[in-house]
UniProtKB/TrEMBL annotation:
UniProt-listed Pfam families: Bac_luciferase
Alphabetized InterPro entries for the sequence: Bact_Lucif_Oxidored (IPR050766), CmoO-like (IPR019949), Luciferase-like_dom (IPR011251), Luciferase-like_sf (IPR036661)
Sample GO molecular function, one term: oxidoreductase activity, acting on paired donors, with incorporation or reduction of molecular oxygen
GO annotation, cellular component aspect: cytosol
Organism lineage: Bacteria, Pseudomonadati, Bacteroidota, Chitinophagia, Chitinophagales
Name listed for the protein in its UniProt record: Luciferase-like monooxygenase
Length: 329
């Protein structure tokens, strides 16, 4: 496990009776905490029209986090490319890389990160999803070395080696990441079903590129770690309540934990949530270490990226502290 990198995916989730301002402040505090604990990177997700998530202006938030830290890598997990024209993304991340050299990652996803009505409000056509590969290549073109003969240039942006990552929650993006020779991050924290098939496809089809010579897999998973098993199960219940809102179509802010989640969920909710959260690591440090050791040996991932829907901010900080101890000893 000492050879496996560990990172964080942050959604800036808004809690019940909380606010976006508090969530963003807490996100920065978490990033500073993660930097001290040795985490490799801190990524921000892009979601729109989600009443419980404050990371919609992802690029702005990346700048906020990078400006408040010193060395941890900061990036997108990810920028939902159908919502944006490649030139604007190149200029934005070129600016970030110029301000915080050697610290910016550009993770790209093909989904809009929202519902269809909101996707239309973002002024992007559904065809943009089908043009994902072309848009990535256009984006890479803008990052290419300076060429004054280009009709359109990204300034800042050109000549900057902003690393690009492909995000996926199914096997589709695995083929593309392999073909382009880019690192692949799988969203097992909410769509674990095709994880093993996707990373097998990616590794088997991988073609080296200028950015990457060997396949590189990041697995994004959920975690809730505490000093005791009972406390870990207690704080993890907020995530189950959050996902109940997702599957019911009635999203809610992150709710306080409950003593017995099984008394709150019905049988259908238990079944669906168990499938969605099957790659969730809950327990005390010893228990989670054993779970992660098995997972890493079986999957062979290069990096594990954790997200934690924990209501109490201090408990969330403690969870990430215990996770870091698993990797650093």
């Amino acid at each position: 496990m000492e050879n496996t990198k560990f990172s964080i995916l942050e959604l800036a989730v808004i809690t019940e009776n909380g606010s976006a301002a508090t969530s963003l402040k807490n996100a920065l505090e978490l990033a500073q905490h993660a930097e001290k604990l040795g985490y490799t990177r801190f990524w921000l997700a892009e979601h729109h029209n989600a009443s419980s998530i404050a990371s919609s202006a992802t690029v702005v938030l990346i700048g906020y986090i990078a400006g408040g830290t010193k060395k941890i890598r900061v990036g997108s997990g990810g920028i939902m490319l159908p919502n944006h024209v490649p030139l604007i993304v190149a200029e934005q991340f070129g600016t970030l890389e110029t301000l915080y050299p050697g610290r910016i990652d550009l993770g790209l996803g093909r989904a809009p990160g929202t519902d269809r009505i909101t996707a239309r409000a973002l002024r992007r056509e559904e065809a943009a999803i089908l043009s994902f590969k072309d848009n990535i290549e256009e984006l890479q073109h803008y990052f290419a070395p300076k060429d004054v003969t280009k009709a359109v240039r990204a300034i800042p942006g050109e000549g900057l080696e902003v690393p690009v990552y492909i995000l996926g929650s199914s096997t589709d993006s695995a083929h593309l990441a392999a073909k382009l020779g880019l690192p692949y991050a799988f969203a097992a924290h909410f769509a674990p079903r095709q994880f093993e098939a996707a990373i097998d496809i990616y590794r088997n089809e991988f073609k080296p590129s200028k950015q990457l010579q060997e396949p590189y897999v990041i697995a994004c998973v959920n975690a809730a770690v505490a000093d005791t098993q009972q406390e870990a199960e207690f704080i993890a219940s907020s995530a189950f309540l959050m996902f109940r809102g997702v599957i019911s179509g009635r999203p809610v802010p992150l709710m306080p934990p409950v003593a017995n989640i099984n008394e709150v969920l019905n049988e259908y909710e238990k079944t669906v949530i168990a499938q969605m959260l099957s790659m969730t690591f809950i327990g005390d440090k010893s228990s989670v270490q054993s779970q992660l050791d098995t997972f890493i040996k079986r999957s062979g991932v290069d990096e594990v990226m954790f997200t934690a829907h924990i209501y109490d901010h201090a408990a969330r900080l403690r969870s990430y502290e215990l996770l870091s101890e698993i990797f650093t000893g």
